[in-house]
Write a structure and sequence with these properties.
153 residues, alpha+beta, GMP Synthetase, Chain A, domain 3, three-stranded mixed β-sheet, three-stranded antiparallel β-sheet, 6 strands
Length: 153
């Protein structure tokens, strides 16, 4: 189980990780969402190359960094890496999109088909609309074509 004292070691490893990739970090924020979830938000001057198309590069960097940290700290934990609040802004956008499309589906009584998206984005849509009694959601398609459909009830 990770403790607050591990923050310095995590910060040191993160700085070394990005330094080896010749990346200058302007700011690192580390916090714990729970005992086994570490949130790291870093600020970069030019984040686009490290976020990649639809956040794919960011997720791969997160996976690599989690592996390095798990090995160095000899602890297994989940890592949530965000660069310049990309994920935070994406989640806010998806929640807003879900609400707007659900309202539109109810108003027009027509299904709304979202464009294909990764599993974590679909989960945000489903979770955001789960409590609503006037719409239902379902995922359809396979692989990269998997998408969410919002249906009025």
């Amino acid at each position: 189980m990770l403790e607050q004292k591990d923050v310095n070691k995590i910060k040191e490893v993160v700085e070394e990780f990005f330094e080896k990739m010749a990346i200058t970090i302007s700011k690192i924020e580390i916090s714990f969402s729970s005992a086994d979830i570490v949130d790291i938000n870093i600020k970069l001057d030019e984040p686009q190359i490290f976020i990649g198309e639809r956040g794919q590069t960011l997720f791969e960097i997160q996976r690599l960094l989690r592996t390095v940290l798990n090995k160095k700290l000899q602890e297994i934990f989940y890592l949530n890496l965000d660069i310049n609040d990309y994920k935070k802004k994406k989640i806010e956008y998806l929640k807003s999109l879900a609400k707007d499309l659900a309202d539109e589906a109810v108003l027009t009584r027509e299904e709304k088909v979202l464009s294909p998206m990764p599993a974590y984005e679909r989960r945000i849509i489903h979770t955001e609309l789960a409590q609503r009694q006037d719409v239902s959601t379902e995922s359809q398609g396979e692989g990269f074509d998997r998408h969410v459909i919002i249906k009025p009830r």
